[in-house]
Design brief:
2 helices, about 80 residues
């Protein structure tokens, strides 16, 4: 879990537009993340919050998204998995 909302980076859309075809936008800042993704987070509520593997019944489940190392280091809630 993270202490910021998904897709909430101030330059998310600008960063995401600059990604290469082999990159997926980080779920927080939009910078490109290549496979294998260093961290994975489930986005639910139509992009409004973080979920977990038990959230597939959420009608707003957007699936798994990568989280880059920098964003994970800055925004991970300590003690949360």
């Amino acid at each position: 879990m993270y202490n910021v909302r998904p897709f909430s980076g101030s330059r998310y859309f600008e960063n995401a537009q600059r990604n290469r075809p082999d990159e997926t936008p980080c779920a927080i800042c939009g910078r490109g993340v290549r496979d294998p993704w260093p961290r994975v987070a489930v986005v639910v509520d139509g992009g409004g919050s973080w979920g977990d593997a038990n959230s597939p019944e959420d009608s707003g489940n957007m699936g798994a998204w990568p989280v880059g190392n920098d964003c994970h280091r800055r925004h991970a809630i300590k003690g949360a998995s």
